[in-house]
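Q: What would this complex look like in 3D?
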Amino acid sequence: MVQLKLKRGSENEKLPLYSQYHKYRKQKIVFLFVSIILLLFLVIFAASTGSIKIPFSKVLNAIFTLKTNGTGRIVWDVRMPRILAALLVGGGLSLSGTVMQSVLRNQLASPYTLGLSSAAAFGASFAIIFFDAGTGTTSTILVSNSFAVAASAFGFCLLSTLAILLLTVLTNISAESMVLAGIAIGSLFSAGLTLMQYLADSVQLASIVSWTFGDLGRAKWQYLVITALALIPVCLLFFNHRWDFNALDTGEETAIGLGVKTGTVRVLGMLASSFLSAIIVSFFGTIAFIGLLGPHIARRILGSDHRFLLVSSPVIGAFILLAADTAARTVLQPMILPVGILTSLLGGPLFIYLLIAGRNK
Amino acid sequence: MILEVDNLEFSYSNVDVIRDVSFMVEEGEIVSILGPNGTGKTTLLKCLNRILEPKNGCVIVDGHDAAVLGHINLSRKIGWVPQHGNASRMKVYDLILLGRKPYFRWSPSIEDYKKVEEAICLMGIEELSMRYADEISGGEFQLVQIVRALAQNPRVILFDEPTSSLDIAHQHQLMTRIRTLIHSSPMAAVLTMHDLNLALRYCDKFILLKDGHIFASGGRDIINSENIREVYNMEADIIEAGGFPLVVPV
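A: Here is my prediction, written as structure tokens for the whole assembly.
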């Protein structure tokens, strides 16, 4: 009988293939560490960059001492909410996209392509018009009661998710029917949004259009705390199912043959990823392509193993969004572009490049 | 008896696909389910490990009722080799490690890695193990799927059309490996097949399915001209070539 508790070193000698595999796994872990360190460097760079340049040493000093006077005020009150928003939104949307692509077995699944953004935009415009949440004006955003707008957007996102799930339960929870239901319901909400825009007066219309630009400038500490609190249980749930997602990648029948309750994993995965995206989209608006780019780049570099993909994809998504937002803040200074415009502008061509590079490979 | 199927029934939207199917499989046996297209061969196979939930009937595997075993325990008893598995962007070793999933909760133990290594060595695919699954050939991928099923340490392995996408040389290589494997270990195999000659050469028992029920079952003698006419609606002679029976359409 083989002893279970043997020292790993002596095992490696007896299991040559495991030894090779162990080295390969180590390489992936090193990559994850390096990418997290690069992301931290980008955070410091983003905090120092803007209309007022702050030296790295002062940024680090402000971050570690939590100082909120002088340059510390710029770092903590102006730049850090935006930076943390980029990390949470980029990471959260990429994480949602990764899980949606796995449980739906469709490389094009993301919060954006499944119509959640349309549902949120409809919900926001509904609140702006019927709850009078958008008639007040500020210098940049024409939304006076942003919490009411976010709550309405979130409510319609959940409604859309429940409708997708209900439709798919009626059709035996197949992955294909979930994607089709998502597209159909997203299309309904897009039509509803157009109707809302038609009914709106000029100030309301400006508010609706302004809301649909995905913008990290809306970041408030309350938004960040709520988003972070939503991320924790969702991350734990996804990480707990990482082997199930790997099994689902090999096909529905194989996954069942490996003891996975595919229907349960699919519904749970969709519910959690939709919930997370709903919170993000409701607070920050439509930020396209991040839910596709993060997972696709991570898959290309590290493969489809969800033990690593569920970490690397959000790190890459956060990196891209933070880089894009830093560029959006600085390229046309003093004007600050909503990052949603930049991700759509650059995300499209980058995605086409990834598709072509993948095909050539 | 390693597998007992009793009065199994399955229907899609109230249309009966499988009716009153009963058979038994013993340790070391390779049983092939044969029959024309659309007769329910794959559906029957999927009912055995509850990829599809049967409407009625009972499957007893290794003395346990599959209906009450639960998904995880059932996957420790029955391995599944699909006709077209999805070769995702993972190393072959990762895919085979998935075969140990029914045995661990959080992450694989050294024992799991040992079983993976044993299964890889048993089928002789060591050189494939660190390659990406989406970069190997169809025949190699079929072997990988079998090794993954072996890593499950099952009593029965189900193969859905294992040779359908392979050339003649690879068909015979694969069936030779399956036969050697099943005859030398405490397991059994049930497979669906279209090629009667391949089945006659490598399988021990045969189930001829017609319109979702068993038309005939038993040894090589049930593959005769009369049964082929009834089941496939085709005239054929059975001749002997190289010591093996051969079905020749006339």
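A: To summarize the key features: Residues 1-7, 135-142 of chain A have pLDDT under 50 and may be disordered. The first helix of chain A runs from residue 8 to 14.
Q: Very helpful, thank you.
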